[in-house]
Amino acid sequence: MTDSYADRVRRLTALRGCEAVLSGVRPESVAEQLATIRATATDDLLPDFYGEGGAVEELERRVGELLGVEAVAFFPTGTMAQQVALRYGAELTGRDAVGLHPLSHPLVHERDAYAVLGGLRAVLTTGAPRNPTAEEIAALDEPIGTLLLELPLRDAGFVLPNWDELVAVVGAARQRGARVHLDGARLWESAVHLGRSTAEIAALTDSTYVSFYKSLGGHSGAALAGSAELVRYARAWRHRYGGNLFQQWPAALAALAGLAHELPRLPGYVAHAKLVAAALATLPAARVHPAPPHTHQFRLWLPHPAAALNAANLALAEEEKAWFVGGWRDTEVPGIALAEVTVAGPALELDADQIVALADRFLHRLPRS
């Protein structure tokens, strides 16, 4: 689905005015976001300067506690943070090959930055729509310097391994002499399915990246966490990549607010996602994956063109103040479209019967074949 800016504003305005929201959250205005930042800052808090002090330092300290690591470096983007982590692994091991899933973020969403900027090569770890197994890593036909694990694997449906599978695949990478980097953009909500704390998960790996805006509702920004040596290297390369901004306190304060207010709510979202997915699975010819969801996000397929589904959802929002699911896109199967469902705070207000009723209102707006 492609948008003009006007299309996006229209959709966000409609979502903001909805009384019932199944997937996603109501967008906040700039004034509302500034109020959150103001409420998070103490009166005597001074700005950070080039990544030092202020809210950035407090955010790094807090993330270090949550992940149980020696050191943390704030980055303006996760793409930049991961480029640095993979470069570090290559320099440390002397191997320019990186173990990547074909659906991983560096291969799908970063314009091959790992290769173009980092001079690295991808070794595909599996062709299956899930994270690789220990057996697949052991069977790789060439050595790798770093194995990147994306938890959850977003473009396969936000899927996770179980804890024993994760431990085994990390062990297999170690046997191959590889470092392990965790793409933990959505690590915060993965802890429920894995049955371990974020610190226990991060302890398996050599480096961990986390995002502050995907699930926590921050403005932007990421962190790279690991050893003190890694973070010293990361700060130097952050500068080289142009990521050492003069001041980043707005993003850091928004991230701190997310850690304080959204992080404790994520387990409730994950639990409610199971109810939402089960309700949606009862719709005519609908399919959800995974079933049950591993996090608070999952995929939904319906037997209609994406354009019709997006139009129906927007009309429902504008005329009835109710938001079902947006962001539909066509699949390789004609007439079947896919959307990602995100269960967050607003969805907690809807029980199974209300979800089915909302879905019926949505489906009745579709053209009759």
From TrEMBL:
Q: Which GO terms describe its biological process?
A: glycine biosynthetic process; L-threonine catabolic process
Claim: Disulfide bond is one of the keywords in the record: no
Pfam hit, one: Beta_elim_lyase
Keywords of the record, alphabetical order, are:
Pyridoxal phosphate
Single GO MF annotation = L-allo-threonine aldolase activity
Q: What protein name does the entry list?
A: Threonine aldolase
Q: Which SUPFAM superfamilies match?
A: PLP-dependent transferases (SSF53383)
